[in-house]
# Entry
Amino acid sequence: MQASKWDLIMFDSWKKARIGIGSVTAIAAVATVVAACGGSSSSVSSAAGNAPASAKAGAAVSVATASSSAGTYLVGASGRPLYLWVADSHNKSVCGGACAVAWPPLTTKSAAVAATGVTMSQLGTTTRSDGVKQVTYDGHPLYYFAGDTSKGSFTGQGSTEFGAKWWLVAPTGAAITKAATSTGASTPVSGY
# Structure
């Protein structure tokens, strides 16, 4: 049985429609994958879900101070406290992998900026093993704690996670080793 001209036209139209639908489906699938992956250029994973974003593309990171029952301590732009880890050596971070997920480093793509109460000459950067620039203060690499869910929360104070103590950082650059109660709110000292 021979196909009529009408049958051939219909078959050709059906093939084109099928190819068009396939192309649309493929484009939609690619768009879904790209959207799921996100377009963030942040080099620090915030798998803990509540870790603050560190460096935006080209944005300077600001370090300020806040005060509470622990004393006056350094905070990032989000107002969340910054910690030092006694296992690190001067200008050298050894916190990577799971440690860096629980204790996200304060990273930057440019220089850090000192707010009131922070000594600019004590701010610096060090290059982590993954090539990312981490902010330092008085030679101490700075970190957030993923367990601090809000400004004024400093539940990482005195932790021995990953084998060494984590302390809040005073504006002098020293570790604040005094135990304190995290109230969930702090008094900003430098304009946050």
